[in-house]
From TrEMBL:
Record carries keyword Transferase: yes
List of residues binding ATP: 70
Residue spans of biased composition, Basic and acidic residues class: 321-331, 345-365
Xref: Gene3D superfamilies: Phosphorylase Kinase, domain 1, Transferase(Phosphotransferase) domain 1
Domain Protein kinase: 42-313
Key words, A-Z: ATP-binding, Kinase, Magnesium, Metal-binding, Nucleotide-binding, Serine/threonine-protein kinase, Transferase
The gene coding this protein: LOC111482740
InterPro entries, A to Z: CR_Ser/Thr_kinase (IPR052059), Kinase-like_dom_sf (IPR011009), Prot_kinase_dom (IPR000719), Protein_kinase_ATP_BS (IPR017441), Ser/Thr_kinase_AS (IPR008271)
Protein name (record): PTI1-like tyrosine-protein kinase At3g15890
Family: Belongs to the protein kinase superfamily.
Biased composition (Acidic residues): 332-344
Record organism: Cucurbita maxima
Binding site for Mg(2+): 173, 186
GO molecular function annotation: ATP binding; metal ion binding; protein serine/threonine kinase activity
Length: 365
């Protein structure tokens, strides 16, 4: 296990050279001095993000390479475990739509993870944050981001060995490179799923608004939980709305409850983010919303796999050659007859978020 390796490195302060000679590491073992210099001693001016885990800083190495450094806030057992999980998983995976690990430092009370720097920040910053007013995400960029994030998640579920459940898919964990290509990030809550195991029961982690009902209520986690979260993310990308919003009467409404009446009335024009000023392909928007609602079905067994989602997005949005029913092999009912019933069922399954707020879950923002 990777944790055994880097805890040993931190404890004995081995040099980078000796480590690289003895073990075939695919990453760098940085020194604390290097990272202090790169980030200007973790200056507030270099801080680009902050969450429950700690802070993220921008930096530049002595070779002129831009990096992002995650610095854990405190050396608790929980923080150390999340550090270990993230480094191990990042060391296992290589995909164009997953954030790359450049290296780490583990020594004393410091735990630092070094990533590729993403100059266009997070999807969250463009939808709801400091870049939202600039409206840099036109429709085609949103489509590309959706497909990229889906491909990264599909890789974790279907190609990585063992399979990986992310458990915290949300807008702040989708980063954007210089070309606005999506990179799924932050694997601190991820779970490795051995072959032959369909699901695990575990303490709930993640962010309200994105949590699948069966996971939020009973801690039952499977790949389908990530699919649910991705469905919420799709609706967020299309509409520019937050996953949960507080109404004037103080109650909470999730994004599926918000979108369902528009779908039932076929008012798809009103679903698109107003900042797009109607500059989107209406048929593509219908396709994305339909995929999102299938992903966020309240019944876990009714959700598609991420491999199917990638196919739907590619074929439905880019080629327009196939209907989603042609992709999904086990489609058993006529979609025209059951569409209204499916949407009503989806709406009913999303009325329990006030109850979910009472659960002991961690917000990963």
């Amino acid at each position: 296990m990777v944790w055994n390796c880097f805890s040993c490195i931190g404890g004995h302060q081995k040099s980078r050279k000796s480590v690289k000679e003895n073990l075939d590491y695919p990453w760098e073992i940085y020194t604390l001095k290097e990272l202090l210099q790169a980030t200007n001693n973790f200056s507030n001016d270099n801080k680009i993000g902050e969450g429950g885990f700690g802070s993220v800083y921008w930096g530049r190495t002595s070779k002129g390479v831009g990096i992002a450094v995650k610095r854990l806030k405190a050396m608790t057992a929980k923080a150390e475990m999340e550090f270990a999980v993230e480094v191990e998983i990042l060391a296992r995976v290589r995909h164009e739509n997953l954030l790359g690990l450049r290296g780490f430092y583990a020594g004393g009370d410091e735990r630092l993870i070094v990533y590729d720097y993403m100059p266009n920040h997070s999807l969250l910053s463009h939808l709801h944050g400091q870049l939202a007013d600039q409206c840099l995400l036109d429709w085609q960029r949103r489509v590309s981001i959706a497909i990229g994030a889906a491909k990264g998640l599909s890789y974790l579920h279907h190609e990585a060995r063992p399979h990986i459940i992310h458990r915290d898919i949300k807008a702040s964990n989708v980063l954007l490179d210089s070309d606005f290509e999506a990179k799924v990030a932050d694997f601190g809550f991820a779970k490795l799923i051995p072959d032959g195991v369909s699901h695990l029961t575990t303490r709930v982690k993640g962010t309200l608004g994105y949590l699948a009902p069966e996971y939020a209520m009973w801690g039952k986690v499977a790949e389908s939980c990530d699919v649910y979260s991705f469905g919420i993310l799709l609706l967020e990308i299309v509409s520019g709305r937050k996953p949960l919003e507080k109404l004037p009467n103080g109650t909470k409404r999730d994004i599926v409850q918000w979108v369902t009446p528009y779908v039932q009335r076929e008012d798809f024009d009103d679903i698109g983010d107003p900042r797009l000023e109607q500059k989107f392909n209406l048929e593509e928007l219908k396709c994305v919303v339909s995929i999102a609602l299938r992903c966020s079905d309240g019944n876990a067994e009714s959700r598609p796999s991420m491999k199917e989602v990638v196919a739907w997005l590619k074929d439905g949005l880019r080629n327009k050659k196939k209907e989603m029913g042609d992709v999904k092999n086990n489609e058993e009912q006529d979609e025209d007859q059951d569409e209204d019933q499916d949407q009503e069922e989806t709406y009913k399954n999303h009325k329990d978020y006030e109850e979910l707020e009472k659960q002991d879950s961690d917000d990963g923002t």
